[in-house]
Amino acid sequence: MPASRNSPEEQEGVRVKSALIQLSPEFGKVSDNLQHALGLMRTVKSQLYVLPELFNTGYTFGDRSELLRTAEDAQRGPTYEAMLEFARQRNAYVVYGFAEREGAHFYNAANTVGPQGLIGTYRKMHLFGREKLFFTPGGNPAPVYNLPIGRIGVMICFDWYFPETARSLALRGAQLIAHPANLVLPHCPNAMMVRSLENRVFSLTCDRVGIERNGDVMHRFIGTSQAIGPRGEILVRMDPELPEARVLDLNLELADNKQLGPFNDLFEDRRPELYDEFPLKHMVAV
Questions:
Q1: I want to staple 7 with a disulfide (CB 3.0 to 4.6 A). Which of 3, 19, 206, 217 is the partner?
Q2: Taking Cα atoms as reference points, which of 138, 57, 125, 51 lies closest to residue 95?
Q3: 41 is a domain residue
Q4: Is 9 labeled as catalytic in the residue annotation?
């Protein structure tokens, strides 16, 4: 979908080239999935590349032995080494989802890697469905990285269902939310329009495509990776079935403006003292 007139792609300001890399991984084939991803990444020139959740392993785990075989340390292993080398060659930043192993624990994680090395690892807070059988939920807030290209927040897939995640990233200064995903529910693409609108930030949701089976378990992924602008507008929405790479020029400075007309500011008008858990005396009987 082309950008509309006067979209954030067309307005003046420092532009950041941002790429969505929509993939179709095969479960358990880490080396093949990694090479396929790198091949698609090399077809486009960008400053920021966002890949799907668990892009190198696939999603539909059946038992822990499959994680033992495919999970990697956040800063060691073929996936990290390949993404670091790519980032150095392109002088770029890469956000990718992977299965992280630390001691006896496994995490559904996302690395942000740049030319200088690992920027940080985020462990998914909100586990979806059968993920709870295999992964430990992350215990730290979703991060915001102050990079030379802009302030990039990271969350993973089902985090979208909890508006506090995106809001917390925006309140800590994120201009763009990188959102690796493996979407099976149909609501996320439209919900992320709201997340961007209510926080006045860009969001890049990078999904995968295809059907994945493991024994009796099957997942059908919806694709439709997308870029959303800070007014909630669709800048790009990709194919529901095909792997592809798309690049946008984004003026991230637009996300710093939280004004809504002459009388309102999205963040200054917040009333957090009235949003927290209410004591019982505020309940209304009917």
A1: 3
A2: 51
A3: yes
A4: no
